[in-house]
Amino acid sequence: MEIYSQTEQKIIEALGEFQFLTSSQMVRLGITKTRKGVYKSLANLVNSQRPLVARLNYEISPLNGRPEAIHYLTHFGVRLLEENLEADEIKAPRRVAVAFTSDYKHRVSVINLFIDLRKWADEQGYQIDHTSFYFEQNAGSNRHNKGGKSLADNRLDIGKGGIDYIIPDGVAIVDRGEKKPLFAMIEQHNGKDAKRFLKQAYGHTLAISEGLPSIKYDVKHDGDYVANRVFCVFEHPACMASAMYRLAKSEDFQPFLPLFCFKSEEAMEKTGFGTGWVLANGKPASFA
User: Fold this and answer.
1) Which of 49, 100, 138, 156 shows its CA 20 to 30 Å from the CA of 254?
2) What is the pTM of this model?
């Protein structure tokens, strides 16, 4: 019987929660204090006879150097979690070929956001009941998808206002005891195209107006459905400012203004998930 160190167990459990992680993200989670500290444990997990973890390496980019390797659970790792660590929901790729070079930065950013959410929930003593990412797929296969729509778990079918469906980058439901649960749709906006974000935001307003997220995820408090909030994180502050300005000036957006929270990646790095969010009009956002 294999004996795994505490650090190795934490790595396996973390991959079961977040699906993909770099060594820096493992440090961000507090598994070790430095990247060097995690390397030996990762090597043991990747290079064993029955590897529990697989690794994706990337070529050097002339602009950004070599991106960090991405790690994920093998079927051996999934089985270990199922049999020995009693994990409830295990995230692992459905396909072995999981290279996502063109999506690398965005996917890493989304996972960073969820790591910060996890840290905040732990600090507050809250329980995260559900998380899902845009890159997760339903149990069904695309070969059964005659309509041609994405089978992403996060897909919300709308079918009005010129929007067929939207796929939020993430969904999270946080149990806060006696308080209303925090029901969050996550949007990580990379790049400088504010119009692309505004179209996605419009889709969210249509979904909220129909109660689609609350119904799909059955989020209730004291018997009533809980409206979701949309947490929007931007790579570029100038793009965020442009999007916020246009939303704040829109009369149609006013009913939804309290439900959209904005923050830059830079601010997220400094303050984490729990504080520093603002509404489209620049006023502090509160979700206590």
Assistant:
1) 156
2) 0.91
